[in-house]
Amino acid sequence: MKKFFYILLLAIFACSPDNEDAILEQQSTSSDTLESMNLESEPGLNGDPANLIYTETFENPELYKNPQAGDFYLEHITAPHSFNLNENIKRYGNSAGRFGIKKNDPKLYGGYRSEMAQVTSTTLEEGWYGFSQYFPDSYISDATEEVVGQWHDQPDIGETTARSPSNAIITGNDRIRWMIRWDSTRIKQDNNSEGLHYIDLGKIPKNKWIDWVVHIKYSHTNTGILEVWMDGVKVIDRQNMPNSYNDEKYPYFKFGVYKWKWGTAATQRVIYYDEVRIGDKNSSYEEVKPNGSEELAPLESRINMMVNSYTVGCVGEIEGTCLLVQEGDMIGTENWENFYFSDRIEGFNYEPGYVYGLIVKKTEVENPPLGGSSIKYELVEIVSKEAQ
User: Fold this and answer.
1) Residue 274: closest CA among 138, 130, 140, 123
2) Is 93 left (phi over 0), alpha (psi -120 to 50) or beta?
3) For residues 124 and 250, is the Cβ–Cβ distance under 8 A?
4) CB contact at 8 A, 321 and 313
5) Is 0.85 surpassed by the pTM of this model?
C-alpha cells in the first residue's frame, strides 16, 4: 500500500547568462500548495518481470479521473490541457499520456511543467529505462529550450538545491540534445560543475514515435556508464566515464515537459509519452524497450564526427589521401585521426576548405570482402559546415 506524505520537491528555473544552457533546480518551501506527494511511496508493480520496478503504459482507466492513479507521481496544474489520456495518438495498446503546458499557465515550482516522477525511494545505482515520445506538428521551433526527460538528482543535506540535473533530454531550435553533468565535490554550494557535455541528436522527428532505451550506472568518477539507443540505434556510448554528482542518493527519472522561460515563437508545448519502464541493474534492453519497437541492431550505432578542412597523404595497408576526423571524446581537442577515402562516408560530398560537423551511422560489416573495410559509414545529417 502506498504511503503519502509531503517532501521537499526540487524545481527548475533558468540560470545566469554566463551559463544560459544550464538548468537550475531549487527546493520548494513548506508554503507550497501542491497536493500531497507520493514520491517516497513504495513502488507499484504491474505484474511485469521481476527486474522491472516501474511500468506506466497509460492503460489504467482510473487515470482519466485521477492522474495520480499510476506508478508515477504527476506534477502539474489542475487544467484540462495539463495531462490526459489520448486514444488517437498512442504507441501501443489503447491510449498514451498527453502532457501539455501553455504560456499563460501559472508557474509551478519555478517554471511551466507537466511531468511524472519516479518514487525517490526506488532509485538505484544502476538502471535501465525505456519509453516512447511523440512530438506533434504543433511543437514548433523555439529558441528557448525545454526539458522532455531528466534524471533528477537528490542533493544531500547542506548542499545547494539550485542545481542542474546530471542527465537530461533537451529540445530547442527544433533539435534534440542530451546534456550530461558531473562533479566530485562532496557538498556543493553552487551550480557550477566539473564536467558539462552536450550531444546533438539531430532534428526533432514530428508526427512519429521515438523509442528510447537508456542504461545508466551513476558515478562521479571514471566508473560510470551511459548508453542510449534512439529508435534501435545506439547514439551514446560512454563507458567508464563520470555522469552524475557525488551524492548519497541516486537520481530519479522524470518525464513529460518542463519549460523555465518562454520565447517569442511558441505559446504551448504538447508531448505524448507511452510505454514507460524502469528496470534494475539486472534488467536489459529487451525488457524495457517499448512494445512494438524494432529489434536492436547490435552492430549499428550513430556517432558524431568532425571532418577537418584539409586532407593528408596517408600510408599503411592502403596508400592514398585521408580525411582528418574526430569521433567521440576526441571532438573539440587538437587531435585528429586519418580516415581513408576507401572507407568513405556514403552520402557525404566532401569540399576542402570547410570544417564539418556530422552525424554518421556506423555499421560493422559481418563478412567484408577481401581487402574491403569492416566498417560502413553513412551520412545521417550535416550539423555544421564552417569555412576556414
Assistant:
1) 130
2) left
3) yes
4) yes
5) no
